[in-house]
Design brief:
Blueprint: H1 6-9, H2 15-28, E1 34-35, H3 47-58, H4 71-85, E2 94-97, H5 99-111, E3 117-122, H6 127-134, E4 138-143, H7 154-160, E5 165-171, H8 183-194, E6 200-204, H9 220-223, E7 231-236, E8 249-252, H10 255-266, H11 274-285, H12 291-310, E9 325-326, H13 347-358, E10 360-361, E11 363-364, E12 374-377, H14 382-397
Parallel strand pairs: 1-10, 3-4, 3-5, 5-6, 6-7
Antiparallel strand pairs: 2-8, 7-8, 9-12, 11-12
Helix pairs in contact: 3-11, 4-11, 5-6, 5-10, 7-8, 12-14
The chain binds pyridoxal-5'-phosphate.
């Protein structure tokens, strides 16, 4: 009898974490490595949030809490949805988990049966398909193209829906492409969803605050109130408030779904960290004035990276609307060889050769469901980004 479960065989370890680990290992060996793999802001959690956490500790708020969140935080989340998204929820419609990841996982675990299909636009965040498979469902990728700015069309969505479709996962701005759907683009998708009342919508709004130029963030339940009763809108403090390590995410949707998600959580982790919940409360209710400068900073970095990568031979890099990623296309490099003789036959070989020969760590596109590409996280300083892009330019120029 095998010791490991069949469930384990359905998933693979996160490739983004694997790249970060490999880069750290090379660094420890003394190599000059620039990591562009990690999906987290490079600056510290704002002081007022840290202070709120310290106060929570001093006040003894260090015990178990209600499984899916303290009432104050749920109220703050309701206020956030109303203020920023025009969505009205009661506390009973809100759940708080250990990161956005747990909230998504709870939703899938609480709803998927074998054979249930989940439509996932590709390129996708690496965890979606594996979470769906872990929960016993079947991921159905719908591939967006470079030509359509990495956004799927209404026709593609319509064609992917079957009687077995349970969820449509929507993520805008997207990890890994940074692509953001405008109101008009999203309306075309919600019109399709209105015609298929058995399909639920899981909107992952994690990068809501990281949008550039005059792009305006929109979420499905806001655009199409007719979908409110079958939409779970998820979000979190990890990316917007530089709080990846605190592990707080949240979601809002129909009471029955939220209750079911709470049941899953009650038999896995119980409540998210009590201290982190008070920190998240401060993040959502305290001053929001650092969001705008951060947006500006990330926008400038995006412009730098897009411009430098487009100057690299064989690379095409679209300019995304948000998040802190770009997803360049490397079709022009396939079939070429490095001076050391490595032939670039796919994006995984490209990323490995780039890391070994230049010390720049990126994540290969196959991990996100669209090749040949790679993902750059530009959540690092201008100087580091300029050096990394210069190395990529040299690497590409030397390919024969
Ligand atoms: C699209 C997307 N959703 C959810 C998450 C998970 O966020 P958290 O760290 O809060 O679990 C991430 C993190 O990388 C992400 O990129």
């Amino acid at each position: 009898m095998p010791f490991l479960s069949d469930t384990l065989a359905r998933v693979k370890p996160s490739p983004t974490i694997a790249v970060t680990t490999k880069a750290a290992q090379l660094k420890a060996e003394g190599r000059d490595v620039i990591g562009l793999g990690a999906g987290e802001p490079d600056f510290d959690t704002p002081q007022n949030i840290k202070d709120a956490a310290k106060r929570a500790i001093d006040e003894g708020k260090t015990k178990y809490t209600a499984v899916d969140g303290i009432p104050e935080l749920k109220q703050a989340i309701c206020a956030k949805f109303l203020r920023e998204n025009g969505l009205t929820y009661t506390a009973a419609q809100v759940t708080v988990g250990t990161g956005g990841k747990q909230v998504l996982y709870n939703a899938l675990m609480a709803t998927l049966n074998p054979g249930d299909e989940v439509i996932i636009p590709a390129p996708y965040w690496v965890s979606y398909p594996d979470m769906v498979m872990l929960a016993g469902g079947t991921p159905v990728p719908v591939v967006a193209t470079l030509e359509n700015a990495f956004k799927i069309t209404a026709e593609q969505l319509e064609a992917a829906i079957t009687p077995k479709t349970k969820w449509f996962i929507f993520n805008s701005p997207s990890n890994p492409t940074g692509a953001g759907y405008s109101r008009d683009e999203l309306k075309k998708l919600t019109d399709v969803l209105m015609r298929h009342p058995h399909v639920w919508i899981l909107s992952d709004d994690m990068y809501e605050h990281l949008v550039f130029d005059d792009f305006r963030f929109v979420t499905p339940a806001e655009i199409e109130p007719g979908l409110y009763d079958r939409t779970l809108t998820t979000n979190g403090v990890s990316k917007s408030y530089a709080m990846t390590g605190w592990r707080i995410g949240y979601g809002a949707g129909p009471v029955a779904l939220i209750k079911a998600m709470g049941t899953i959580q009650s038999q896995s982790t119980s409540n998210p960290c009590s201290v982190s919940q008070y920190a998240a409360l401060e993040a959502l209710t305290g001053p929001q004035d650092f969001l705008a400068p951060n947006r500006k900073l990330f926008q400038a970095r995006r412009d730098l990276v897009v411009s430098m990568l487009n100057q690299a031979k064989g690379i095409t890099c679209p300019r995304p609307e948000g998040a802190f990623y770009v997803y360049p296309d490397i079709s022009g490099l396939i079939g070429k060889a490095t001076p050391k003789g490595t032939v670039i036959t796919n994006d995984e070989i490209f990323a490995t050769a780039l890391l070994e020969e230049t010390g720049v760590a990126v994540v290969f596109g196959a991990a996100f469901g669209l090749s040949p590409n790679f993902r750059v996280s530009y959540a690092t300083s201008d100087a580091v980004l300029a050096e990394a892009c210069a190395r990529i330019q040299r690497f590409c120029a030397e390919l024969i």
